[in-house]
Amino acid sequence: MVKAFSSIGYMPVCVHVNAKYSGVAQNRPRFIMIAIKKCEFKNI
């Protein structure tokens, strides 16, 4: 998925998080991806 977004001009930022490390009593792994256009990423 990262390659697909990169090929069309986006800079993907991916994070794997698990709720058990933030005080929740359940094991809930999550994958979060935020994609920013490369031209806008340079301005940040």
From TrEMBL:
Coiled-coil intervals, chain numbering: none
Entries under InterPro entries matching the protein: C5_MeTfrase, SAM-dependent_MTases_sf
Domain of life (superkingdom): Bacteria
Reactions performed catalytically: a 2'-deoxycytidine in DNA + S-adenosyl-L-methionine = a 5-methyl-2'-deoxycytidine in DNA + S-adenosyl-L-homocysteine + H(+)
Key words, A-Z: Methyltransferase, Restriction system, Transferase
GO terms assigned for molecular function: DNA (cytosine-5-)-methyltransferase activity
GO biological process, one term: DNA restriction-modification system
The protein, known as: DNA cytosine methyltransferase
Annotated organism of origin: Candidatus Ruthia endofausta
